[in-house]
């Protein structure tokens, strides 16, 4: 007599899955391929959120510093600020975030590339925000 799901101790009335004949390893590798094929599967939401928070911190501290009479140290951003105001900095941050998400799709290891780029941005961006805060503190004191 053939063995059924009920004989195996399962209480499910569902039909057997199409993957039922595959080994567990083969099923895992198929799942991995499916997940990696998703367009934005390389993006870690918590890591992207951390990058966006640092970007927002840079925009806010730069805005405060400019309001207090400080100058932007990056000549490219300074030019954009002169022509577009704080929207120029927001544009730079939006383009940077877009590149951080899209460029890794051009590599064979998009997840690793995204994470590396994000960590580099987090380090540099955090240093910029700290520098901005110190400059603001020196002017405000």
Could you characterize what this model shows?
With 141 residues, this protein is mainly α. Helix content is 67%, strand content 0%. The protein has five helices and no strands. Helix 2 (45-67) packs parallel to helix 5 (110-140) and helix 3 crosses helix 4. The protein is elongated. Mean pLDDT is 82; it is low at 8-12.
Topology:
Elements: H1 24-37, H2 45-67, H3 75-84, H4 86-102, H5 110-140
Helix pairs in contact: 2-4, 2-5, 3-4
What is the beta-strand fraction?
Answer: under 5%
Tally of contiguous helical segments: 5
**Biggest sheet, open or closed, and with what strands and sense?**
none
What class would the helix/strand composition place it in? mainly alpha
Give the overall shape. elongated
Q: Which runs of at least 5 residues are low in confidence (pLDDT < 50)? A: 8-12
What Rg, in angstroms, do the CA atoms define? 25 Å
Q: Estimate the mean pLDDT confidence.
A: 82
Number of E-state strands? 0
Q: Please write the string of helix (H) and strand (E) elements.
A: HHHHH
Please give the alpha-carbon distance between the first and last residues.
86 Å
The helix content, as a percent range, equals 55-70%
What descriptive keywords fit this protein?
141 residues, mainly alpha
What does this entry show, briefly?
With 141 residues, this protein is mostly helical. It is built from five helices and no strands.
